[in-house]
Amino acid sequence: MEQLGKLLIQMIISGVMMGFVFSLIAMGLTIIWGVMNIINFAHGEFLMIGMFFSFFFFKYVSIDPLFSLPMVAVLLFIIGFITYHLLIKKVLQGPVLAQLVVTFGLSIFLVNLAVFLWSADYRMIENPIASGKISLAGIAVSIPELVASIGSMIIGAAVYWFIKRTKTGMAIQAISMDKDAAAIMGINTDRLNAVSFAVGVMCVGVAGALLSNFYYVFPEVGSFFGVIAFATVALGGFGSIEGAMIAGVIVGLAEIVGGFLLAPAYKYAIVFAIYLAVVLIKPTGLKGW
Amino acid sequence: MIEKRTEISERRRTMFKVKERVFSVLVFTVVICLCAVSLSLGQEKVVKIGAIYPLTGNLASTAMSSKRGLELAADIVNNYYDLDIPFARTKGIPGLNGAQVKIIIGDSRGDPKVGMGEAERLIKSEGCVGLVGAYQSSVTKTASQVAERYGVPFLNSDSSSYALTARGFKWYFRLCPSNETWAQNLVSFIKQVEKEKKATIKTLVILHEDTEWGASSADMQKKYFTQAGYKVLDVIAYPAGATDVNSEVLRVMKAKPDILVMNNYITDGILYTRTFKTLNYNPQHFLTWCGCSEPGYIPAVGKDGNYFFSYSEFAPELAQKRAVVKQIMELYKKKYGENINENTVRAIPAVLLMVDAINRAKSTDPAKMHKALMETDIPADQLISPWAGIKFDPKTHQNIYARYVIVQILNQAYKCVWPPELASAKYVWPWPEWNKR
Amino acid sequence: MNIKTRHIWLILLALFAIVLPLILDSPFARHVLIVILLYSILGEAWSILGGYAGLLSFGQAAFFGIGAYTSTFLLINWGVSPWIGMIVGGFLAVLAAICLAYPCSKLQGHYFAIATLAFAEGLRIIFLNWNAVGGARGLDPPILPTSLWYLEFHESKLPYYYLLVLFLAVVMLAMWKLNSSRLGYYLRALRESNNAAESLGVNTKNCKVIATCISAFITAIAGTFYAQYVLYIDPASVMQLKLSIEIVLVTMFGGVGTMFGPLIGASFLTSISEIFRVVLGGAGRGMDLMIYGLLIMLISTLKPDGVWGLVTERLGRRPGKEKAKTSGE
Which CATH number fits the domain C3-323, given the four candidates 1.10.1130, 1.10.1330, 1.10.3470, 2.60.120? Predict the structure, then answer.
C-alpha cells in the first residue's frame, strides 16, 4: 500500500512536470488560434525546428540548450514573423478552409525540408548541463524534465504577463475578442497578427528547446506533440491562455496517471475522452468564451 | 485603406492570368506523366529487380541503409570484385550471358496501399523479374499479394511477422528469421543463462509497441515463454512514439518480473532507457528487440546503453571467421563513408539470392526461377549474415536456417553473446544496477 | 450554360470515365485511378458535412475504419459477402455517427472539429488494442476466387474501377439531389448562421445529425471497397488521422461545397503526389513531399477557393465563390 502511494506521488510529479511543457506548447497554439482564428497544423513542426536549432547549437557551437534558449526563441520569433508575412497573411481574408490547407501544406513542407536538409536520423543531445536526477525519499525527479517544466512555467508566465499587462498584449486580446471592433478602435490588426503569430511560434519553439534536453530529435517529432496540443487547446478553450495552462497539466496527468491505472495503451484515448466529456458539459472548453 | 484594397484586387486580376497558365501547364504535366508511366514498359536488356522500401517518413534512414545494401549487391554482381562470394569475380550473371542487374527502387511511404501500387508499377510498368523489400510487415503483406497475383518471386529479408509465411503463398520467400524464431532464440538463451549463471528466472513481463510488428512479436514471445514453463506476468502494449513512458515503466515496476522483454523501436528505446535510469529500475535483465540495435541508439544514449541485450542480424564477429565479411565491411565503409549496419546486411542476400536463382534457372522465366528458388541450398560460408544457410521450407517458404544472434552492449559496442559458436564476449548477468555503475 | 449543354458535358465526362482506364492500361496507372476515385468518394462524403453544413470533420477515418472492419470481420468469420457487410458496416457507422453527432451538435466550429478528431483517435486506439478484431495485427480478408459476390477481382483492376465509378456517380447524384432538397437548404442555412437558421424554425440539431449520418454511411461503404481492394487492413492504415486529413485536403483543394470539387482535388493531389513519389521518392530525402507541400501552399495562397473555382470561373459561372465560404466560426 505504501509502495502504491509512493508510485502515485511519483506519477503525479512526473505528470505535472510533463504537463507544464504541454501547457507551453498549447499556449503558443491558443494565441494564434484566438487572434487569427486559424488552426495551425504546422504547430508541431515549429516544435521540431526549435528542437533542431537547440541540437545544432549544442553540436556545432557547443552551447548548452539552456544557454541557447534565448537565441532559439529569437530565431523562432523571426521565423514566425516571416511565415506570417509570406503565408498566413495571404489567406487570412480568404475562406477558413484555405487557411487550413496552407498550414497542412506548411506542415508537410517543413517535415520534409528537415528530412532533406538534416536526414531522418534520430538525434539526442548528449550530457547537457541539465541531466541526472534528484532522489528524495524514493521519489525520483529527472533534472532535465524539471528544468523543462520550470522553464515552461517561466516562459508561460512571461507570455501571460505580456498578453495581460502590456499595451501590445492587451491589443492582441482585443483582436481575439472582436476583430472588427478592434480595427475600428485604431488597432493595427496586421502588425499585431504578425506579432501574435510570432509569439505563438516562439512559445512552441522554446518548448522544443526545453524538450531537447531529454527527448530525441527527428523530423516527424512534431506530429506526436501536435495532436495532443490540439486536444489541449480545445480542452482549455480556444484563445484562452489560462485554459491552455490548466489543460496542459490535466493532459500530462491523464497521460501518466491514467495510463498507469487503466493501461498504457489507452493513455491518449483517456486524453481524448476527457476532452469529449468536458465539451459535452461546457461546449467552449474549460476557460473559453 | 480602400485604395489599397482596390490596388490589391487589380493586382490579383492580372495575376489571375498567370495563375491560369500555370494551372494549365500543371494539368498537362500530370496527364503526360501518367501516360508516360504507363507506357514505359521495360525494354532494356538488363535484369531488373524491384525494391520497395519506406524511403519517406520515420524509417527513411533505415530504408536508406537497406537501399545502399541493394546497390552494393548489384555492384558486386555487375562488376569484378576480388571477393569470396558468388558473382563477385564475374561481370553480370554468368548463366544469362553476363546480363547486368539493375535495382529499381520504389518508395512505399510505409503505407500498405502505396506499397501495393508500387509493386504493380515495378512488376508491370518497369518489368522487374522479382521483388525485394518491403521492411514493414503490413507493406510486405500487400506488396507480396501483388507479386503472388502476377506470379513473380518476392524475396523478403526484412519483415519478421510470422503471419507472412503462415499465408502459404507460392511466390513469397522469406530469407530472414521471423519473430517466432526470435521468441525461440530468446527462450534458448534464457535456458542457457539459467544453467551458466545459476540464475533463477521464473517470471517476465512483455512490453510492446502497439504496431503490427510489436503485437505479433509479443504473441510469439508469450507463446514460447509460457510453453517453456515461465510465467508471463503481464503483456503491456503502449502507443508507439509516446511522448512519455513513465506510466509504462511504473506498471512494469509494480509487476516485479525477473526479466523484461521489450519490443520497441529506437525512439521509444531511447525514452525507456532514460526513464529506467531516472526511476532506478533494475530487473535481473532486459531483453530488447530493435530498440537498442538501430545505428542511432548508442550515440543517443551513450554509456546508459551499456548491458542491454538486443537482437541482431549482423555479427561483426563473423569478420574474424569469414574473410569476405571483413572485405564487404571495408568495401561498404569506403563506398559510403559509414559503418555497415544490419539493415544493409539484410538487404544484400536478397539480391544475391535473386541473381543466384536466375543464374541457376538460366532464365528470368518465373516458373524456372521458382523451381530454382525451391532448390536453394546455400551453405553458411557463402553468406555475410549469421544465418546457418539458406534453404526454404517447402510449404511456408521460410528460410529454415535463419536465426538471430543476441548481442550485449558492452563499452558502447555490440558484442555477440549468443549463439555460443559466434560469441565473442562474456555476457554480464545480472543487470548492473543503475546507481552502482 | 443551359440544361442541354450541361447534359452534353455530363455525358462526355461519363464517356471519359469509361474510356480512361482503357487508354491507361498499365496496372499502376489503374491503381492510381482507383485511389483517385476512392478519395473522391470520401471527399464527397466529407463535403456533405464540411461543405454544406459547415461542420469540419477530422474524424472521417473512424467511419472508414468501421466500414472496412465490419465487412472484413463478417467475411472472415462467417463468410458473409462484402456487399452485405458493406450495408451492415454502413449502418454501424451511422450508429457511431449518431453517438458522435447527437451530443456534439451543440459544439461550435473548431470545437466540433476537435471533437471528431478526438472521437476518431480514441476509436483507433480501441481498435489497436482490441484483440477480437486483430488489434494492431490487422485483418486479412481471405483471398477467394474472383467473383462479384465476394468483391474480389484478381485478374484485372477494371471491375474495381468501374464499380467505384458507379459508386461515385451515385454519390454525386445524391449530392445533386441534396443540393436542391429541403435538407440541403437547411444545411446551407445553418452553415451561414446557426442562430438564424434556428430562428427560422430549422431543427439544427437533427440536420447536423442527419448530415453526419449520410456522410458516415458513404464513408463506411468506401471503407469496405478499400478493404476488398487492398486485402489487408489495420488501424494504422484505415483509421489513421492522416487519412482524415487527406480527405479534408482533397476536398478543400478541389473546392468545398461543389459537386466536382472532390474529384478534381483528388485527381490533382493524388497524381501529383504519385508522380513526385515515383520520380523523386527513391532518393529517400523527402524531396517529393517537400515539393508537394510547397505546391499546396502555393496554390492555396494564390487560389484560396480551390481548383474548382478556377474551372467555374473559366466557364463563366461562379457558384464557387459563395459556396466555398465555409465558416469555421
Answer: 1.10.3470
